[in-house]
Amino acid sequence: MKIAIxxxxxxxxxxxxxxxxxxxxxxxxxxxxxxxxxELKEKHYIGPIKAINQFCSFFIDTKVIVAIGDNRIRKxxxxxxxxxxxxxITLIHPSAIVSQKATLGIGTVVMANAVINSDTYVGDHSIIxxxxxxxxxxxxxxxxxxxxxxxxxxxxxxxxxxxxxxxxTVIPNLTxxxxxxxxxxxTVIHDIPDFSTAVGVPGKIVTKKxxx
Length: 212
Known about the structure:
- By secondary structure, this protein is of the alpha/beta class.
- The chain has three helices and 24 strands.
- It has helices at about 10-20, 50-60, 70-80; strands spanning about 1-5, 25-30, 40, 45, 65, 90, 95-100, 105, 110, 115, 120, 125-130, 135, 140, 145, 150, 155-160, 165, 170, 175, 180, 185-190, 195-200, 205-210.
- It is globular.
- The mean pLDDT is about 95.
């Protein structure tokens, strides 16, 4: 499987390591706006993000992953590229445990030692990061990020674009709204509205604003 990576920051490094562990997978291109033109460098191509469309038209069997950790930037790039859903690949680290009854969207990445249990749905272009635990019957939207060692207990609803910080815990049956943020180490015991930020133990809302 030939893979083109969009982005060459820290998150991209982790995804490159993940791909190196998958038999039959090969990185054929890395695209980032620090590059000015499409060119072959050593074992793969490099180029600006806008070149990915041209690249995929030449190498039609190539799959794409957007390796950008920031949820808003990741969404912006996906919108900008306008690639078909079938172009994107979903990646699962070999050490991750994903229930056969879980559903993962296109372009989503599951990192090392993460656990996703039965009847959980994870949307498109989301990140389940290192050691995160996503229990049964959770529903996670598109462009979300569940950070390292965060825990979503059963039946948690997580909106599009939401970021759950490292080591945070969300108790069962709660709703974390779209584009909300939960601080690292927080324990969430109440619903969090859209576009809000919650921190602390127990988690308290410290900012709330409407999207513009």
